[in-house]
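Aggregate trends can hide what the representation actually does to any particular protein. The sequence in question and its structure tokens are set out directly beneath this paragraph.
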Amino acid sequence: MSDGVKIVRFEDFAGRPWRNGGGITRELLTGPSPERWQWRVSVADIERDAPFSLWAGVQRWFVPIEGGGAELRVDGLPHRVELGGEP
């Protein structure tokens, strides 16, 4: 393609297991570089209930893109995150 545009397919992104063993993540885009990212867009498959792994200094937004949503516990309180809802 012209203009430096490259088409990639989701299947082309290798999944990496979560540190807590609860799922896998596929990093789609990072910046300014993959090694020293300050932001990233990723897609995760949740395989079982598990606590979020700690990422000190990282603000996380979570949005389900398929399935029945998820329940997160923040400071012991449940927060339901629905498909198509707010992050």
Q: What stands out?
A: The mean pLDDT is 86. The radius of gyration is 15 Å. Residues 14 and 26 are 6 Å apart (CA to CA).
